[in-house]
Specification:
Blueprint (H helix, E strand, L loop, with lengths): L4 E2 L8 E2 L8 E7 L7 E6 L8 E5 L7 E2 L9 E6 L7 E5 L2 E5 L4 E3 L4 H7 L4 H5 L2
Antiparallel strand pairs: 1-2, 3-4, 4-5, 5-6, 7-8, 8-9, 9-10
């Protein structure tokens, strides 16, 4: 059995929290540092599929909805929350980095993904409209 599991007793017991999480293999999971009930997961169907879907839960994993606009056919290998802007989710794929929100996905300029995660933005990234 795959998916996301939650413990409310320090790891003494675990329960699945997968309603709406249609893909069972979770590749990466991040928790919003400001609102810890908001979770993001990249999950994929079982092997040999080479793409993943990004999901978001607003209720601690109890329910999930797809947040994948613009990433169809890509394998999301890593998710992160922008430390300077916690409402921004960054996704890394073999094709590059992407900024995710509810309605769109925008590519990130080369080097900007790393800059956002380390908090050091390049001059070009800072000037990008």
């Amino acid at each position: 059995m795959g998916g996301v599991f939650k413990s409310t007793n320090g790891g003494g017991g675990w329960v699945p929290v997968n309603t709406g999480l249609s893909n069972p293999v979770v590749v990466t999971l991040v928790i919003d540092p400001v609102t810890p009930t908001i979770l993001y997961a990249a999950a994929k169907p079982p092997y040999p599929v080479s793409y993943s879907t990004v999901f978001k839960s607003m209720v601690g994993g109890a329910r999930w909805k797809k947040l994948n606009t613009g990433l169809a056919g890509r394998f999301v290998q890593f998710l992160a929350i922008d430390p300077a802007m916690p409402t921004t989710v960054l996704a890394a794929t073999a094709d590059g980095g992407f900024v995710l929100d509810q309605s769109s996905t925008a590519p990130v300029a080369p080097g900007e993904l790393t800059a956002r995660l380390t908090g050091t933005r390049s001059r070009a990234a800072a000037q990008r409209p």
